Amino acid sequence: MPHETGRIAILEDDPIMGESLHQRLSLEGHTVKWWTKGEQAVRELTDGTDAFDLVVCDIRLPDMNGEEVFRKASRDTATPFLFMSGYGDIDQAVRLMRNGAVDFITKPFDMTAFLERVSLSLRSKEQPEGTLGISLAMRNVEQVLRRYASHPLPVLIQGETGTGKEVSARFLHQISARKASPFIAVNCAAIPGDLLESELFGHEKGAFTGAHQLHRGYAERAGEGILFLDEIGDMQPTLQVKLLRLIEDGYFHRVGSEGQVPFRARIVCATHQDIGSDGSSFRKDLFFRLSTLPVRIAPLRERPEDILWLAHRFLEAIMEIRDTRVRGIGALAEDAMLEHSWPGNARELRNRLERAAALSESMLLMPADIFPEIVTAYNAPRMETLADAREAAERRQILRALSATNGQILQAARRLGISRTTLWEKMTRFGIEASGCSGN
Ligand SMILES: Nc1ncnc2c1ncn2[C@@H]1O[C@H](COP(=O)(O)OP(=O)(O)OP(=O)(O)O)[C@@H](O)[C@H]1O
């Protein structure tokens, strides 16, 4: 089973568990570091001497809680955390995932399952391949980002949770001249407000009790790259003022210093909140600055063309690294996916497929594999007219053909055995959008 290798840190106080994870990960070809104390982990994760691709972290530790370690180490949120939680810690683990951890696995687990989670976590931060989707909406996003790529101005990415805001920000980084410089991701909701200032701007030695040495913040460490401020809507008002000043002046002060540090990175922010609305308490002047170049990522339900396209990409990635019998998605499961409203967007789609691939016994995924909770309702006979049933089937078949041809309308029409004009007419009638005016 091919897999990614990387630099992995383990934070586990149990000597037997720690030793066995260390041995196994080393055997798999990873470079492994093992800490038994939270304080040790925080120190090494934040002093900038070593960079890790993944931290595998126990939630219960003798000196501090794994959540605390994650918060403190979120000074380097670019490092993904995979949590190992006991059954009673699941709520906490889920909360941590919402705050930026990549994944969690419940103890006790078997080693194969653990290694799969590690591979998936390592891959979760992989660079996008250059295409964000086949829907008109996502192609527009891609075009807009390509247009924005060469500017130094801030970009504001808005969209529901899980729509792919961070994926889009990383895409922007990859297609820009800043590619060779860092992409520093900061989850503003994951770092307590009073800590965020010194995390962003750094602090001088002796700036406050406990500031034993000079600390360079994210703004400095981003160099000439991208400073990605996720969940910007959660930033405290006092810090909003400082961010505004940084954008206007082009420099900032480390906490406890009068000296000016030039800011050379580009700011890209993301939020699922409507921070520009009248009802929002977010500073209007900052909003206008940040949203100079706005991008809106539509929810998945508004771009059904991307559902199967994403599903097949996710499944292929899962099949590459997982020992699964699954080789594809059955037609009924595809129908069910096209009918689902995807409140958790692309993240929900990925999670459902991961679970389905892990649990399914068959080669083709069935609706029950992907939607175990609604399968009864799905199987219940629904009474509809023949005309409605025919239209629904036609719509699904068109979406399948578009997914299989990466949104190429001429090719999709050929596959469907109809003319391009007929396909256009049907797509318009069914409210399906696609890119294709130009020679598609
Ligand atoms: N266009 C895409 N191509 C490939 N993977 C995607 C795409 N969009 C989203 N994903 C996957 O869906 C998941 C969620 O994406 P991402 O973290 O970018 O969303 P988000 O909008 O930033 O979420 P949040 O609001 O919770 O921060 C990730 O696993 C990501 O890899």
TrEMBL record:
<dbReference type="InterPro" id="IPR009057">
    <property type="entry name" value="Homeodomain-like_sf"/>
</dbReference>
<dbReference type="Pfam" id="PF25601">
    <property type="entry name" value="AAA_lid_14"/>
</dbReference>
<dbReference type="GO" id="GO:0000160">
    <property type="term" value="P:phosphorelay signal transduction system"/>
</dbReference>
<keyword id="KW-0010">Activator</keyword>
<dbReference type="InterPro" id="IPR003593">
    <property type="entry name" value="AAA+_ATPase"/>
</dbReference>
<keyword id="KW-0804">Transcription</keyword>
<dbReference type="InterPro" id="IPR027417">
    <property type="entry name" value="P-loop_NTPase"/>
</dbReference>
<dbReference type="InterPro" id="IPR002078">
    <property type="entry name" value="Sigma_54_int"/>
</dbReference>
<keyword id="KW-0067">ATP-binding</keyword>
<keyword id="KW-0805">Transcription regulation</keyword>
<keyword id="KW-0614">Plasmid</keyword>
<dbReference type="InterPro" id="IPR011006">
    <property type="entry name" value="CheY-like_superfamily"/>
</dbReference>
<feature type="domain" description="Sigma-54 factor interaction">
    <location>
        <begin position="131"/>
        <end position="358"/>
    </location>
</feature>
<dbReference type="Pfam" id="PF00072">
    <property type="entry name" value="Response_reg"/>
</dbReference>
<feature type="modified residue" description="4-aspartylphosphate">
    <location>
        <position position="58"/>
    </location>
</feature>
<feature type="domain" description="Response regulatory">
    <location>
        <begin position="7"/>
        <end position="122"/>
    </location>
</feature>
<keyword id="KW-0597">Phosphoprotein</keyword>
<keyword id="KW-0902">Two-component regulatory system</keyword>
<dbReference type="InterPro" id="IPR058031">
    <property type="entry name" value="AAA_lid_NorR"/>
</dbReference>
<dbReference type="InterPro" id="IPR002197">
    <property type="entry name" value="HTH_Fis"/>
</dbReference>
<keyword id="KW-0547">Nucleotide-binding</keyword>
<dbReference type="InterPro" id="IPR001789">
    <property type="entry name" value="Sig_transdc_resp-reg_receiver"/>
</dbReference>
<dbReference type="GO" id="GO:0043565">
    <property type="term" value="F:sequence-specific DNA binding"/>
</dbReference>
<dbReference type="Pfam" id="PF02954">
    <property type="entry name" value="HTH_8"/>
</dbReference>
<dbReference type="GO" id="GO:0006355">
    <property type="term" value="P:regulation of DNA-templated transcription"/>
</dbReference>
<dbReference type="GO" id="GO:0005524">
    <property type="term" value="F:ATP binding"/>
</dbReference>
<protein>
    <submittedName>
        <fullName>AroR</fullName>
    </submittedName>
</protein>
<dbReference type="Pfam" id="PF00158">
    <property type="entry name" value="Sigma54_activat"/>
</dbReference>
